[in-house]
Structure formats: C-alpha cells, structure tokens
Amino acid sequence: MRGTVALGPYLTGAIIISKTTLDSKLARVYVETFIMTVTTEPEALLSHLYKADGSATYSHAGYTVIGAVNGPIEAQKRDELPEEAIVDVIVRPAAGVGGTRERHLESLLQSTLRQVILVNSFPRTLIQIILQITVTPENEYINGKLVQANVNLPVLPALLQTAILSLLSASLPMAATLTSTSLAIIQEDGRPHIVTNPTARQVEQSKSFHVLAFTSQNELILAESEGAFTLKEWDDIYGAAYRKCCTTASIGDTDTLMDEGTTGADLKRFTRSIIEQKTASDLHWK
C-alpha cells in the first residue's frame, strides 16, 4: 500500500507501507521504504531513524542524502580531546566503496561543522555524523562517461544541509545554522553568466564552479572553488550566493533576482521553517 506524507510547506514525502498491525490501544505502522518526492524545491524529513539520536533526509537539486547523528558519546581514550568533543563525519557514496572523493568531502564537512557545533560543551566525547548519498542527478553520466570536472563539490551543499538538519534533530547545541548553495560561471554569447544549482552537464561546460555556505548570522563560513575566474567574477559569485542564502525573497526584489540568475528556493526561509516544525513537534506534549 502506498501513501503520501505532508509535514508542512517544506516537509513532504511518500512512503510504502508493507505491514500494519492493529492493537486495541495503538495502531502501529511499519514503514519499509521512504522515498522523497522529486521536485525543484528542497524537501526534508526529520527524526525518522529511531535508533539514531538525530536523523534527517534532505532532497534538492537532484541529490537525496540521509543523515544520522549519534552523540555526544564516549570517545576512545586514544582519540579523546581533553577540552572539546571530536566531530567525526562519514560520507558514504550512492554506489560502491568510498574513496578519495569521500575523504575530501569529509574533511570539508568536519572543518565547517566544528565551527558551528559547541564542541567545548562536551569535552572527551565523540559526535558522529553519518551521511549516506542515496540519489544523484540522472545526468551525472554523459554519453556513458562520468562527469569528472568538479566531481567533488556539487554534492557538498546537500551534505551540509543534511548534516545541519540531523544535528537539529539530535538537539545538539550550535552557535548558528548553515545554508549552502552551488554556482557555476558559464560563457553565453561571449559573456559570463552565473547559474545556481547547475546540472552535471552545466558543471562540465562551466568556466568555474563554486560552493559557498553562510551562517544564520549572514557570515561566510565555507568557500570552495574550482576552475579559472577573475576577482570581479568572484565578487559576482559572492553576491549571488549571499542573496540566495542570506536574504528572504519578496515580491519587490523578484526582478533583481531573475537578472542575476538566482531564482529558486529561499534557503533561509526553508531552514527557518524546518526549525519551527521541529520546535513545535518537541513542545507538542506541553
């Protein structure tokens, strides 16, 4: 039996129910598979893995990532830090065994998340974040050949957002939340054009590719770039990413966003909506 779940303006999904057991006091539904619906808007589901302290599934721009957080838990004696917690990030690919690509992503995620998690509040402990990539864009393979250009960075915004939502689900204290986006500079009609959330084909054809992340205080916390670009192009990239991640779109500034090629989901409003949904759920018993 197939059903649909709607959990708010940004929380939607579909489930396949394999078995239902009715009890005189409680109806229990066993969920076999959770499938995020495919849309251009970001979607998320929180706290659906019951054996983890916190969990989230995030889907956007062709990627779907499942995250699980456990911690703070006891760290091994040889690894523990006397004054702060260890942040361990594990990235698992959609197929096959992780390699240098996943190790590179883990390094970027760990250094970024350590800046927002209050690690000093949990000395000698471990905070483990596991991110499983389940869906990648269909056009990641072009003419039977894997797109090699900038292969590490396109999935980074989805991984970052999933990690933040999983940490929120686990109720771990953080100094701020994050929003992240990817942008590419493509030559069109002899002049550079900025594209947000580019496809794999656009990434392959782009002059440069960029991933930027901002905190909820509108501060730049991560900037990764590949390719050749000028200082003027970097300023344009920063401005486009700032408007995408740090401002709330309104009717009055729609034309400006369209001119800059930054139309799409309002990431800051999306994150705020997720936090409101989580807070309302936690306080429902009161």
From TrEMBL:
<dbReference type="GO" id="GO:0034475">
    <property type="term" value="P:U4 snRNA 3'-end processing"/>
</dbReference>
<dbReference type="InterPro" id="IPR020568">
    <property type="entry name" value="Ribosomal_Su5_D2-typ_SF"/>
</dbReference>
<dbReference type="GO" id="GO:0000177">
    <property type="term" value="C:cytoplasmic exosome (RNase complex)"/>
</dbReference>
<dbReference type="GO" id="GO:0006364">
    <property type="term" value="P:rRNA processing"/>
</dbReference>
<dbReference type="GO" id="GO:0000176">
    <property type="term" value="C:nuclear exosome (RNase complex)"/>
</dbReference>
<comment type="similarity">
    <text>Belongs to the RNase PH family.</text>
</comment>
<dbReference type="InterPro" id="IPR036345">
    <property type="entry name" value="ExoRNase_PH_dom2_sf"/>
</dbReference>
<keyword id="KW-0271">Exosome</keyword>
<dbReference type="GO" id="GO:0016075">
    <property type="term" value="P:rRNA catabolic process"/>
</dbReference>
<dbReference type="InterPro" id="IPR001247">
    <property type="entry name" value="ExoRNase_PH_dom1"/>
</dbReference>
<dbReference type="GO" id="GO:0071028">
    <property type="term" value="P:nuclear mRNA surveillance"/>
</dbReference>
<dbReference type="GO" id="GO:0005730">
    <property type="term" value="C:nucleolus"/>
</dbReference>
<keyword id="KW-0539">Nucleus</keyword>
<dbReference type="Pfam" id="PF01138">
    <property type="entry name" value="RNase_PH"/>
</dbReference>
<feature type="domain" description="Exoribonuclease phosphorolytic">
    <location>
        <begin position="49"/>
        <end position="173"/>
    </location>
</feature>
<dbReference type="InterPro" id="IPR027408">
    <property type="entry name" value="PNPase/RNase_PH_dom_sf"/>
</dbReference>
<protein>
    <recommendedName>
        <fullName>Exoribonuclease phosphorolytic domain-containing protein</fullName>
    </recommendedName>
</protein>
<dbReference type="GO" id="GO:0071051">
    <property type="term" value="P:poly(A)-dependent snoRNA 3'-end processing"/>
</dbReference>
<keyword id="KW-0698">rRNA processing</keyword>
<dbReference type="GO" id="GO:0003723">
    <property type="term" value="F:RNA binding"/>
</dbReference>
<dbReference type="InterPro" id="IPR050080">
    <property type="entry name" value="RNase_PH"/>
</dbReference>
